[in-house]
Amino acid sequence: MNAPLSSELLKQHLIDPEICIRCNTCEETCPIDAITHDGRNYVVNAEVCNGCMACVPPCPTGSIDNWRLVARGEAYTLDEQFSWDELPAEKPLAEGAAAVAAAADAAAVDTAAADAAAPGEVGTPALPASGAHVPPWSAAHPYVNLYTHKKPVTATVVGNYRVTDADTDSDIHHIVLDFGALPFPVLEGQSIGVLPPGTDAQGRAHHARQYSLASPRNGERPGYNNLSITVKRVTETHDGAAVQGVCSNYLCDLAKGDSVSVIGPFGNTFLMPNHPRANLMMICTGTGAAPMRAMTENSRRRIAEGQLGELMLFFGARTERELPYFGPLMKLPRDFIDINLALSREPGQPRRYVQDVMRERAADVLRLLVQGDTFVYVCGLKGMEAGVLAALADIASEAGHDWAGLSDRLRREGRLHLETY
């Protein structure tokens, strides 16, 4: 951590640019604004970072968990970190500094021993106000970072289908990638990185873009080594300025048989439970439907096994025709999944958002929320997060429950997961 080891040494927090997928989770999580970024790298300001570790658990790749022991006067500057394509080799410490480091290590061992001898004096650190940092207790073991920027895997496009009406501005594609005989094990709730071809304005290769899986663990086509992602073609910024999304346009224009460079998989917390009768409450907007589709399809394939819990979905979009997977979703049996649509621009209808529909179904939301086998997943644009959490808080509080205590328990038990962007 960047907490001082001595007046001479610093354990400097660094981010590995080879593994980082630029998802912005660390910068959003940091409570003291020690993390920043440019068009290339995410970096940590050694003069601000206090080593609180709040950014480490949410990172989907582990790129955030890198530390270098340096002489305090030789800490890596922000400009140095911005220029890296990979972490530099360790700096050798001068003889005096090395002796200080050895003494610090010995003190750390003594402290750990003292803590072990008096465990009751060591409190559980409070989690930041975000989603769970641990997976459901029954989740399968995820594999992460099998392939990196330096050593990506090549997948073949075996399907590319538009899943919104052709006459809408919302051009969303369902893209199926096959890995042949190369291992790429994934779980529902994980994501992959796609490396678009070409270079950025500085002439360097584009960094990866992250996409959530839309298919279950045994493949988009069961028994095949494939997976699917949900991609929206980006043609403008959130405030309406024209822009061509580098990776989204590349992916949406791919044809069957094309090759794609993939890294990952990523993610070890936003995972579905495996134990029987677990309930899933899924809340999403737009392409945030991808992990919900994966979890729903996994559950649908397990219907014959019995012992499924309840599935409740709140799905938001502007109109029905802009809602990805609308047709297949409407064909799912209603005794299998409780579907609630929130359409904000449907002609002739009042604007409704997912939090509005959640409040309309407050009794059923509460019934699931207070059950120990219910797992809540929220995925979509960052703007939805506050509204969804406020709706959950209101529903719980109005029924006499302590939302602060309930939400803290949900997070600590790996039962409230947020993935917004």
Name some characteristics of this structure:
about 425 residues, alpha/beta, 10 helices, 15 strands
Name the structural class. alpha/beta
Q: How are the strands ordered across the major sheet?
A: 8-7-10-5-6-9
> How many angstroms separate the termini?
27 Å
> Helical proportion?
10-25%
Radius of gyration: 23 Å
> Strand count, sense and closure of the main sheet?
6 strands, antiparallel
Q: Beta-strand level of the residues, as a percent range?
A: 15-25%
Stretches where pLDDT is under 50 for at least 5 consecutive residues are: 96-128
What coarse outline follows from CA principal-axis ratios?
globular
Element string (H = helix, E = strand): EHEEEHHEEEEEHEEHEHEHHEHHE
Oligomer: single chain
Tally of contiguous helical segments: 10
The total beta strand count reads 15
Tell me, rounded to a whole number, the average pLDDT: 88
Can you put this structure into words, describing what you see?
The structure is a single chain. The chain is α/β, with parallel strands linked by helices. The chain is built from ten helices and 15 strands. The strands form four sheets. The protein has a six-stranded antiparallel beta sheet. It has a five-stranded parallel beta sheet with strand order 13-12-11-14-15, sandwiched between helices. Residues 96-128 have low confidence and may be disordered.
Secondary structure layout:
Blueprint: E1 9-14, H1 25-29, E2 35-37, E3 42-44, E4 66-71, H2 78-83, H3 95-117, E5 153-162, E6 172-178, E7 191-195, E8 209-212, E9 226-232, H4 246-252, E10 259-266, E11 279-285, H5 289-301, E12 311-317, H6 326-330, E13 338-343, H7 354-360, H8 362-369, E14 374-380, H9 383-398, H10 403-412, E15 416-420
Parallel strand pairs: 11-12, 11-14, 12-13, 14-15
Antiparallel strand pairs: 1-4, 2-3, 5-6, 5-10, 6-9, 7-8, 7-10
